[in-house]
Amino acid sequence: METLMDVPAGQMGVTQGVDRKGPLKGKGGALAQWHRQAAHKLATVHEAMQVLAQATREVQGRRWSLQVHRLRDTAWQLRWREASPPRSHTVWECIEPELSQLAPGLAQWLRETQDSAVLLNHQEQVARYELKTIARLLGSRAPHGGEHGAG
Asked: Which end of the chain has fewer CB within 10 Å, C or N?
């Protein structure tokens, strides 16, 4: 077998032609499958966000709960909300100092819930970016929310 080191410098040439139709020629099926998988991934993250938010609303005597907040047409984010009126949004940095007033088990559960919320928020953002990238590759300007009923 001949290697580059065996070929005299003057005899090296380009042996591969240039694919003028682009690197994605014939890849429509693979891209469509990737799009379906990414849309499913986003739907799964959205479902997990709803489940986590519901779990925080079921806590007896709760002071805060997570809410699924829709930022744009397809963007979701978990945010903390006060349980009592005026039920305004709050941030973890305001909740965390008050955890010492709660039962240790509940305080720990809230810390773990916050960790899960942060992770889900990031996973949701990454999944939306993945769909946006695929849509760009497909040459589509259609909404990137998939078929999971984001409304």
From this structure: N
Name the more confident of 7 and 59.
59
Q: Is the whole model's pTM more than 0.85, yes or no?
A: no
Nearest C-alpha neighbor of 60 from the set 18, 94, 90, 105: 105
* Mean pLDDT, rounded, for 119-133: 96
Cα(91)–Cα(67) distance, integer angstroms? 12
Q: Is 82 helix (H, G, I), strand (E, B) or coil?
A: strand
**Inter-axis angle of helices 104-138 and 28-57, to 10 degrees?**
160
Q: Give just the sign of the alpha carbon dihedral 141, 144, 146, 151.
A: negative
DSSP code of residue 17: P
Q: b/e string for 51-78 if b means 16 or more Cβ within 10 A?
A: ebbeebeeeeeebbbbbbeeeeebebbb
Domain chopping of the chain, boundaries: 31-137
Q: Which residue has the higher pLDDT, 8 or 65?
A: 65
Cα–Cα distance, 38 to 68 (Å, whole number): 20
**Position 94 confidence tier, pLDDT thresholds 50, 70, 90:** very high
